[in-house]
Each structure stands twice: as structure tokens, then as C-alpha cells.
Design brief:
Length: 177
């Protein structure tokens, strides 16, 4: 069983390397230090999806074993729910956060026996009054979660589709050229 899991992981990794080369398909591999952002703008709606190994967010990937770990998870969920703090959008675009959903397998009882790895997933929807003014997104995730070293961003806007890699040193996502 362990071998099968390992093999599946390897296949996923290889598929992912291929996707990376194509730059058109989203990353799905679980790699510590890495996280994925899918950003889609359609009309006045900007949707951002974050997927990160729990290791980057709380420093462990098992269900909480004590109150300290449980608190760490709750705290991380609360921080992640604060989408306004995570993403600074061009003020002139007048964007409001309308949805913020955060989920992690660490809070699911079933995870205990099924996996060696766990993720945090979050989804945000912003409604922007002046999409034309939306030039850039400042990503604060690196500052809030130092375990995230690199973000693989898939960007889909009315101007097209792009793949971008961001780091703490380059945390600003330019939406327009
Ligand atoms: Zn992991």
C-alpha cells in the first residue's frame, strides 16, 4: 500500500512537471514550501483559490494531538478567512470581499487514518466596481505564512491565461502589462 501511494505520488509529480512545462494546467502536486493560487477574473468578479500543504501553514500535517496544535489550526483558518489581509487589490478598482471559504483536512476526523499529507484550501470571491482599474494584486501570504516559499499562480483574465511564479521577494502579481 505504501509503495502504491509512493508510486501515485511519483506519477502525480511527473504529470505535474509536464503541466509545468505546458504552463497551462494547474499544479496539483503537494510539495512543501510550494502553494498554488488560481486566479480568475470574469466581469466584475475576481475569484482566488489557494491550495497549500498544511506544513506551510501550521508546520505539521497530522490531526491535532494537543490543544496547542488545535489552536494553531483554528488561528490559521481565521487568518486565511481574512481575504482582505491576504490580497491587496488596486484601491481604485474598489473590490469587496464577498466570499471566503477555508477548509483543511486537518479538521476532518477521517483524515487520521487515510493520509500522510494534508492541505489547506481556501476560496475567495471579490466583487470589483471598476475592473478596468484593477492592475495588480499584492500577495501577503509570504509574510503571514513564512512556510510558503513559492506560489505557482495560474491567472485567467479577459486578457488571457498566464502562469506566474511568485516569491517573498516578488510578491506582486501584475495583472496588466
Ligand atoms: Zn505534506
Amino acid at each position: 500500500m505504501k509503495n502504491l501511494v509512493w508510486l501515485t505520488g511519483l506519477i502525480l509529480m511527473l504529470c505535474n512537471a509536464n503541466a509545468y512545462a505546458n504552463d497551462h494546467r494547474p499544479h496539483t502536486a503537494h510539495q512543501h514550501g510550494m502553494a498554488q493560487l488560481n486566479i480568475a477574473q470574469d466581469g466584475h468578479t475576481l475569484q482566488i483559490e489557494l491550495s497549500s500543504p498544511a506544513m506551510n501553514i501550521v508546520g505539521f500535517e497530522h490531526t491535532p494531538r494537543d490543544i496547542t496544535q488545535h489552536r494553531a489550526i483554528k488561528q490559521a483558518v481565521a487568518t486565511l478567512q481574512n481575504g482582505i489581509r491576504l490580497f491587496t487589490l488596486t484601491p481604485a478598482a474598489v473590490c469587496k470581499l464577498t466570499t471566503a471559504d477555508v477548509d483543511t483536512a486537518l479538521l476532518q476526523e477521517a483524515t487520521k487514518h487515510t493520509t500522510d499529507h494534508a492541505d489547506f484550501e481556501a476560496r475567495y470571491v471579490f466583487a470589483c466596481q471598476s475592473v478596468a482599474a484593477l492592475n495588480a494584486i499584492e500577495i501577503k501570504l509570504f509574510a503571514l505564512f513564512p512556510g510558503i516559499q513559492e506560489l505557482a499562480v495560474q491567472l485567467l483574465t479577459e486578457q488571457g491565461q498566464r502562469a506566474v511564479h511568485l516569491t517573498a521577494a516578488q510578491a506582486r502579481l501584475q495583472l496588466k502589462k
